[in-house]
């Protein structure tokens, strides 16, 4: 495999960049220097313009998820290409990518050759690599968003971003937005249907807005936080329900998106799903108590229950299209509560854990002279 060094780069291969490294739950992230890698065919070196801290990052930091160490966390990233290998990578439209392109990319890199990839599940590839979830060692150490630069591996699904979409809005596209696009793809056509969403975080708020854009006549959302329910109305929710009142709800729904991960929400979804309903589980990514489910309800209602974890490149494409059309229609830009420098990463984490905003952002300040 060939290696390529940009003609604009310094011949000094010891040139380094900064990253915040995770060494274990409950420990502050440590700022460390990493060498800039020589690029191989199909790779790209990307300057991180903005990174948002996802809920899964916080779960890892609290020890609720187990990730390898040392690692560079965070996968919700907007970046600018500063160098490409030879031959260079191409975007989702098979157009060549060049220096200066502002891009997002799939959090998953698939082999395209295993049985799962060939059967239409590249997001569950047997040799899957995930940005923000890999060991920070060797030439591919720069694999997470909490860094000045990130190395995009060959085979990564990369997409150019419209110039009018702010970084703060674009950053979650390759996580929450694409995941919800995958959830609606699993649910099928929702035009003219009744949608119920559980959880009013980034996933749930996105699900409300996307459901309305897909033609749902009713999109109801349930959460424990009244402030988030009020915010959901600005994303198009036709009604809001508190967790305390969900037991008494008598309405039925055609599509139910569970984005909270709470077993009680899954049980409620199966109870209020109508005949022919589709229950899509999105939020259950950590261990929880077993769900109590009456199988006769599922059988007699012809109910479908499906899980969505990761997403395919087609979902990233749909997510970009949705945000491109609707970012001015819904207040996505307001969901980033505060922005920190990379050198203040531990303050950013503390703010996220203490105040529970929808998102906190990190914007590295680095030289663009490479």
TrEMBL record:
Q: Which CDD domains match?
A: MDR_TM0436_like
Gene3D superfamilies attached here? Medium-chain alcohol dehydrogenases, catalytic domain (3.90.180.10), NAD(P)-binding Rossmann-like Domain (3.40.50.720)
> Which of the seven top EC classes does this enzyme belong to?
oxidoreductase
Q: Which cofactor does it need?
A: Zn(2+)
Task: Write the Enzyme Commission number(s) for this entry.
Answer: 1.1.1.1
Q: Where does the record place the Alcohol dehydrogenase-like C-terminal domain?
A: 203-324
Q: Which UniProt keywords apply?
A: Metal-binding, NAD, Oxidoreductase, Zinc
Q: Where is the Alcohol dehydrogenase-like N-terminal domain?
A: 41-162
Pfam families (UniProt xref): ADH_N, ADH_zinc_N
Q: Report if keyword Membrane is assigned.
A: no
Q: Name one GO cellular component term.
A: cytoplasm
Annotated TM spans: none
Molecular function terms in GO for this entry? Answer: alcohol dehydrogenase (NAD+) activity; metal ion binding
User: What family does this chain come from, according to its entry?
Assistant: Belongs to the zinc-containing alcohol dehydrogenase family.
What protein am I looking at?
alcohol dehydrogenase
Q: Which organism is it from?
A: Stieleria maiorica
Q: Write the gene name.
A: tdh_1
